[in-house]
Design a protein that fits this description.
The chain contains 14 helices and twelve strands. With 381 residues, the chain is α/β, with parallel strands linked by helices.
Length: 381
Amino acid sequence: MKFGTKAIHAEIEPDSATGAIMTPIYQTSTYVQSTPGEHKGYEYSRTQNPTRHTLEKNLATLENAKYGLCFGSGMAATDAVMKLLSPGDEVVSTNDLYGGSYRIFETIFKAYGIVFHFVPMNDLEAIKEKINDKTKMLWVETPTNPMMNIIDIVAVAEISKSNNLTLVVDNTFASPYLQNPMDLGADIVTHSITKYISGHSDVVMGAIICNDDGLQEKLAFIQNTCGAVCGPMDSFLVLRGIKTLHLRMQRHCENAAVLAKHLKNHPKVDKVYWPGFEDHANHEIAKKQMRGFGGTISFTTKSDTLKDAHTFLSNVKVFSLAESLGGVESLCSHPATMTHAAIPKEVREKSGVVESLVRLSVGIEDINDLIADIDQALSHI
């Protein structure tokens, strides 16, 4: 079954009671039992809910995996994965990391005795240098946020397996439409469902995908015990959003490709970060492990100043200045003061997140309107 068909049909059956083609919203906290312990597979909605259950199975199928678990946010999913670890364990992560992930690693789990090493993971030797007998996990983002670096999942998976580690890949920027890390050797895939998978800027949700029975059992226990689950209404909205994921991602990629090339030739733009360029450091890896180059672009202004970045961001009309990404509408943000503000300045600037950097989430509007908006906003600099 091809992806577009799976997005619409995978694990989704007409409602047995009414024949409704859409999965019902089971807005209930509990379920009646015929006798103590005798029920229809559902006892309490923190533990299991039919709407959420359908979404979890659908997401697993899209990632070519066995198991899916949904959470109240992408950070709740990250939190659950970190709870697989114990004090003294060490994690090697990319240095170009979403600010929220860096914050939870350094301010929450570091306090519980977990040690984090942040390295440029497109340098395989840098990963190997940090691995020791306490290392338990490798944490990968690819493409990275916001520098659009590409990490070779197959190569990192080989390192992970040879050292008996758990490889986690945050697949938020690519979505299952463009990339399937499970097929490339990942043990766990995470998503901020809030972004491309939901795609309509109306839901906050996260997900964990895996194949291993033991990992699934541990993660499901954490999900139920800690209780950071999503509700049935949000699950319904995401199921609806997924039905157009393949169509939306195709348009995101098409628009981003045109806009990235336009920005690269603009006299007021310095560097453009987009893995579709042939001179991108890991362009060939992107071509090999992805089916497109995504809908997110970052760039710096020629003057390389905070003032000019703010001027641009304050003058967009079609793009909206807002946190997040992956919605049908185009968004722009300033990572240094928004999404990555939690990372110390000297740390984020080493990975390229300088004050003139702007991140664009290219939506599915008419590309000519997007280009015109970018041009008029840049004209104010």
